[in-house]
Amino acid sequence: MQELMVDFIISLDGYASADGWPGWWGLESPEYLAWLEDQPDTFTTLMGATTYRLMSGFAAGAAGTEQEADAMSSLTASPKVVFSSTLDEPLDWANTRLVTGDAVEEVPRLKAECGQPLHTLGSVRLCRSLLTAGLVDRFRLVVFPVITGATGSERIFDNYPDVALDLVESRTFEGGLQLLDYVPRVLDGPPESGTA
Question: For 4-186, CATH number?
Answer without folding.
Answer: 3.40.430.10
